[in-house]
Every structure is written in C-alpha cells, then in structure tokens.
Amino acid sequence: LLLLPGMVFYAPGVLISEYFIIQRGQAGRAALIPTISLLTSSLLNLALTPAFGARGASMAASVGYAAMFATAVALLRVDTGRPLRQLFQFSGRDLRTVTRYLTKDGR
Predict the structure, then answer these.
(1) 75 contact partners, CB below 8 Å, separation of at least 6
(2) Cα–Cα distance between 107 and 103 in angstroms, integer?
(3) % pLDDT > 70, the chain
(4) Is the pLDDT of residue 105 over 70?
(5) How far apart are alpha carbons 73 and 27 in whole angstroms?
(6) What are the phi and psi torsion angles at 80 (to 5°)?
(7) What confidence score (pLDDT) does residue 106 get?
(8) Which long-range contacts (CB under 8 A, 24 or more apart) does 15-24 make?
(9) Is the Cβ–Cβ distance between 66 and 6 less than 8 Å?
C-alpha cells in the first residue's frame, strides 16, 4: 500500500513527459522529469531503506514519483502559461474533442 500513492503520481508524470517529447520536441525537459524522481528516491532510499527496510524503500519510491509529478506539472505550467487549475479542468470542448476522436471516422 505504500507504493500506491506513488503509482497515482507516476502515470500523469509519464504522460506529461511524453507531451514534451512528442508535441514539443523538447527531450531535455522530458528527461528532467524522471531525473528528479531518480535523485529524490535515491537520496531517500539511502536514509529510509536501512532504517525501515522494504517499507522505507516503498516510501522513497512514492515520494520520488510525487516529485516527478510536481516537476512535470511545473514544467507544463511554464510551457503552456496556464494556471494550475486550468491544467486539470475539463471543459465541454475537451469532451467534444474526445468524443469526436472516439467515433469511427475521427474527423
């Protein structure tokens, strides 16, 4: 259960990373996102794993994934210039676009 919060943060972090690679052609920014996760979890693992074993490693991983998500969101805000609330708010236009692409013709 200690890894569950990390998994919640991992998936959107990866999606935002893909945005920088595919949509923006900014592989450097995309690489920064998992790098922050790696550094965070590695440093926390040094402290938490000897003291708490597998539980400490799980906590370190979850915090690392949360740091990854926070970095991804910060970079996305800078790139889009949108406030945080707009990044996670669906509009009617968004739903219509998704519905259109889920139909057979996708036009």
Answers:
(1) 16, 20, 29, 32, 33
(2) 9
(3) 96
(4) no
(5) 16
(6) -90, -20
(7) 55
(8) 16/72, 16/73, 16/75, 16/76, 17/72, 19/76, 20/75, 20/79, 24/79
(9) yes
- How does DSSP assign 2-45, residue by residue? TTHHHHHHHHHHHHHHHIIIIIT--HHHHHHHHHHHHHHHHHHH
* Residue closest to 16 by CA, chosen among 75, 92, 90: 75
User: Tens digit of pLDDT for each residue in 30-80?
Assistant: 999 999 999 999 999 999 999 999 999 999 999 999 999 999 999 999 999
Q: Is the pLDDT of residue 104 over 80?
A: no
Q: What is the mean pLDDT of the chain?
A: 93
Round to whole Å and give the CA distance between 51 and 45.
10
Q: Read off the amino acid at residue 5.
A: P
Residue type, 78: V
Distance CA 37, CA 67 (A): 6
Check: CB of residue 40 under 8 Å from CB of residue 9. no
